[in-house]
UniProtKB/TrEMBL annotation:
Natural source organism: Mycobacterium kyorinense
Source organism superkingdom: Bacteria
Keywords: Lyase
Name assigned to this protein: Fumarylacetoacetase-like C-terminal domain-containing protein
Presence of keyword Lyase: yes
Example of a GO MF term: 2-oxopent-4-enoate hydratase activity
SUPFAM superfamilies xrefs: FAH
Annotated Fumarylacetoacetase-like C-terminal domain residues: 47-203
Pfam families xref list: FAA_hydrolase (PF01557)
Gene3D superfamilies, A to Z: Fumarylacetoacetase-like, C-terminal domain (3.90.850.10)
Annotated Gene Ontology cellular component terms: cytoplasm
Length: 208
């Protein structure tokens, strides 16, 4: 057993790796958190697109600041500075989550903003986030990136160290979700949501 992780955690990550290999799909990134796992390339959705909720169990959304890597991250020695240096840009994202399944944690879709922002241009540890609904953009919930382990850089570095123990590396081109800075919000067909990060920009999605 790998020190610091339960046999269940090890088994879950192994299942996800095996499932990805069996389906011959490309891994486009990873999500951090207690139900961490790979994000397949087919899970990513463009800003403003419509997502079909058919077949999804208890769909909810969370607001996250996504990190897109320009360089590979080191493994067990990864630090917050390594993450900052390797990050090409950050973008707002809305993660659609459902009841957790073994092959890709709880994530079903990831909507990425269309305006990249340099990680050096903002204070990553203190970015306000707002999730609003409808075309009138009624505020549903607010949050701050500081809720993600004090700094999402810390969450990404921790993820890199964690998965390295299983032979996994976070690589250039991967999109990393460090964790939600807002509470999860239930969604239904016909809903429209927009997430905004102060100084970074926004991202929108509709559901059918």
């Amino acid at each position: 057993m790998v020190i610091g992780f339960t046999s269940q955690e090890i088994t879950m990550l192994d299942v996800r790796k095996r499932a990805a290999a069996t389906r011959r799909v490309a891994i486009g990134g990873y999500k951090a958190g207690p139900d961490q796992g790979p994000l397949m390339t087919g899970m990513f959705v463009d800003d403003g697109d419509t997502v079909n909720l058919c077949g999804l169990c208890h769909p909810r959304i969370e607001v996250e600041l996504a990190f897109v890597l320009g360089d590979d991250l080191p493994g067990q020695a990864c630090t917050e500075l390594d993450v900052l240096d390797a990050t090409e840009y950050v973008v707002p994202s809305i993660e659609l989550i459902t009841d957790a399944i073994a092959d890709n944690a709880s994530s079903a879709r990831v909507v990425l903003g269309s305006q990249p922002c340099s990680p050096l241009a903002v204070d990553l540890a203190d970015l306000g986030a707002v999730l609003s609904s409808g075309y009138s953009e009624v505020v549903v919930t607010r949050g701050n990136t500081g809720a993600v382990l004090g700094n999402p850089l810390t969450a990404v570095a921790r993820l890199a160290r964690h998965v390295a123990q299983f032979g996994v590396r976070l690589q250039a081109g991967h999109t990393i979700l460090p964790g939600s800075c807002t509470r999860a919000v239930d969604v239904s067909a016909g809903d429209r949501y927009r997430a905004e990060f102060a100084g970074v920009g926004g991202v929108s999605v509709e559901f059918c």
